[in-house]
Each structure stands twice: as C-alpha cells, then as structure tokens.
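[step 3/7] fold_predict: job queued, chain A
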Amino acid sequence: MSRTLVGPTLALVALVSGACSTHSDPVASMDRSQVQVADTLTRDSFPFAPNVHTAALPTLPATLNPSGFNDFGEVVGASGNQAWHWEGSRGLAFFAKPLEYTVVDVENVNNRGDVAVNVTPDTGTNRSVQAAYFDWFGALHVLRPLSRSTPSCAIKAINDSREAIGECFSGGLFLPTIWTPFGTPVPVEPGGGAPLKTGLIVSLANSGYIFGYDTNLVGFTFSPGRQLQHLRPAMQFITGGLNDNGQVTGEILDGHIPNRPFEAAAAWLSDSARELGINGAGWAISDDSIVVGISDATYGNAFGFVWTVGTGVQRLPGLEHLAVLDQESVNTFRMFMNKKRQILGRITKSDGTQTYVMWTLPATITRGAAPTLARVR
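[step 4/7] structure written:
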C-alpha cells in the first residue's frame, strides 16, 4: 500500500500569513531574562510569523484528540477503545479490534506506519496493560514484558527503527524500559549501572535519545551512549518535545519568582537553557532548534507560536481575517511538528466552531512585523 506526504492542497481552507497576519555536563543555569518581560506583554506584542501556510483539515473530526503525527502527515489516536488513523488522501479509518485484546490508548506513530498502543487481554487471569503496536497492515504485535511473573507494561513511543520505550512492572517497581527492534525488553540503565527506578518516559527520538521526568517532575534525557542528564535548574517540568540531537522543549513552573502563577515555555538546547519569553508550553522542537507551542491565558485567548533563537516568539496565523482574529483561539490537547515543518493543532474560530489546522513553516523563518492594524473587538 503506497503512502504519500500530506500537502496543502488537501485542505478546504488555506491561506498564507503575511505581515498582518552531547556534552556530558548538565546545563547548570537558565537564561531567565525574558520571564518578567513575558508577564507584561499582550497578545499584540507578538508579531505574526510571515510566510506560514495555514490549512484547515475538515476531514479530521474536531472531536478527536490525536496522539501522534508523522512525517507523512498521518495522524493517530484513540476514541473509546478503538484506535484510529487519519490521512489527508484517505480520511479517517478505525483499526479493527484485535483478537483477544482491547485497546486502552494510543501513544504515537512512526514513519513506517507502526502505531504504539496499550492493550489489555480479553481473557485469562491476568488483565494487566500490555505494550504493543499495530503495523502498517493492521496486525497487532504485543511486546514481551520484563517479568513473566508480573507481565504488565505500558508503551510510550516507537521510533522508525522499531525501538520502543515505556515502563514495565518488575520487582515491585515500574521501571523505564527500552524494547530493541527485535522486541527484547531492557531496563534503562545509565552508564550500564543500576536501572532507573523512578520517572515517567515522555518521548523517544529516532536517534535513540529518550526524554522523561522524575517523580519530582524534573526533566531528564538519556542518550544513545547511556548517559543520563538532568535538565537544570531543577525546577518542576511538565510536557515536552524531543529532537534527534537530544534537545528538549516544554513548560516549567517558575517557583523561583514569588507569587507568580504562570508557567513559562522553555527550551534546553545543546549549549544553553532558556525561557522563551512567553507564558505557555513548548510542545515540539525540530532538529534545527525551532520550537512550536501554545500560549496560556495570560494574553487572552490562547494562540500557537513558533520560536527561534534569531526571531524570538512569533504567533502562528489563524484562519480568519484580522478583524475577528483575536476571537480565535488554539484549543488543542497538544501540538505536533514533523520533520517536514508541518504543525498540527486545533483552532476554535470566532463563531465557536472547531477545526484541525496544519501550519507549514517556510524554509527560512524571518521576523514579522507587529500587528498594528485596527481591530474590531
């Protein structure tokens, strides 16, 4: 069965925005120069990123919550106990219920079309959650647990090499676990030492980097060379995206500023860690350090943003004209970006209707002009 990349011609509504519209030492400190500034900004303080293509995806139902998005533009998720798959050229399809198992949730999709899922057996005395994946043809492959006596595992991600990451119950603990491409489970063991005994795995890169956070919500990365690196400073860390270079973006709770209730979008790059200058969360980071994310309610309706070192934070354009654009909001469970610089999110338009949107970033991201035209509020 052939697969083709999603393009902007698949959308019903499309527009282009213009001016209106492994180092071993952990990063020891974070650039916080923008954090107080972010609290004083307004929605109009952020320019629109120019030359971003915006396309509505009317065949992807707005009632669904995606869990994965790959470089072919394929989107996956779960509705009830059914896994689903969406392509621009074929629309929405549901996976057939696998024999002897019920799908609990869907986690991600790789570029082979493998879909990471968690399932429970329909029969037998053990009904614990099992890690598994659907292949492109819809066959279910259940991964082997760490312990045969307590066979309970949960998958979090599968990459293009069919390496998978998740947690398995063994010895009374849920241990972060890697499955090799052959399905062999191995505990995450920094430096070949004792296995990690705490933490939650978030994502797995094609390069083999792993991102997660510990029981105190402090983020960490685990390199292909088995080096564990905590993301400093040790502030509480929520959400997050990971690239093939081990760089991470996400959201931190800025407890170092008294009485500050907001969360700040942040990025941990190869040589620095910094808050991005916007209250909200980074959800994905490209291999060339482009961050996309969602603002919080500090600025009124939430909006999608793109950040680079050279341009700072810029708004992703909406679907409507400038007069009602401030009435739009990004209302999405999470935001995704693939290696084609396509971004997936959900917008609530000014009339209250919701639609999924695919933004496509230009080859070169430049700084746009601040929105200065009069608005109808």
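[step 5/7] annotate
The chain has one domain: 11-360.
The domain at 11-360 is CATH 2.130.10.150 (Methylamine Dehydrogenase; Chain H).
exit 0
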